[in-house]
């Protein structure tokens, strides 16, 4: 019987809920309208928000030039509020979040060394932030199905570049199970509820697609 209170040594590239924080980059109303698979981006970011709640992960959220690009999408805001996650959007006008000292300090102040990245756009702000976070010594996990760009090709190129630069690429479910560790952890029952919701969401979306 495994001892969940004292984990054996694990591979350092696996997510650990005592090491991880969630970053949500620039999911803003004006640009979101032009994003490839925008519904998938918002939905899967919502799953990551719920995972952050389950594991009490720190959450950092940024907004790029909100006067021009609008504020964070209302669905994302609602999901954060429903999860009881307090946040203060960090303003940015440099593509890499790390170009702003207050962002770097906010990340460092979490005391976490694994940064889980979601948001947009994959090939611009996400890519530059991911690489700069690694340059600051953080281990970066990019949630491939919770980052998007206006064009699929731009997204795919960005994922490949980040992978080659040393970022760890995962999907939201991989991240969820790594953080939860095992079926006897206190978080597993909540994770199971999320997985059932995700399965239901998939069926609903499939049904909508079949009616088009």
Output the number of helix runs.
9
| Total domain modules | 1
Radius of gyration: 17 Å
* Average residue pLDDT: 94
Relevant CATH superfamily: Isochorismatase-like
How many β-strands, per DSSP?
A: 6
Strand order of the largest sheet: 3-2-1-4-5-6
Q: Give the N-terminus to C-terminus distance in angstroms.
A: 50 Å
The SSE order reads: EHHEHHEHEHEHEHH
What kind of oligomer do you see? single chain
CATH topology: Rossmann fold
User: What fraction, in percent, of the residue positions are helical?
Assistant: 40-55%
Summarize the main sheet.
Answer: 6 strands, parallel
Task: Give the class-level CATH name.
Answer: Alpha Beta
SS-based class: alpha/beta
Q: Which term fits the overall shape? A: globular
Question: Uncertain spans, ≥5 residues at pLDDT below 50?
Answer: none
| Fraction of residues in β-strands | 15-25%
CATH architecture: 3-Layer(aba) Sandwich
Write up this protein.
The protein is of the alpha/beta class. The protein has one domain (20-181): Rossmann fold (3-Layer(aba) Sandwich). It is built from 9 helices and 6 strands; from the N terminus they run βααβααβαβαβαβαα. Strands 3-2-1-4-5-6 form a 6-stranded parallel β-sheet, sandwiched between helices. Helix 7 links the parallel strand 5 and strand 6. Helix 2 packs parallel to helix 8, helix 2 (38-55) runs antiparallel to helix 9 and helix 6 (122-135) runs parallel beside helix 7 (152-165). The longest helix has 23 residues, at 188-210. The protein starts with 19 loop residues before the first strand and ends with a helix. 39% of the residues are buried.
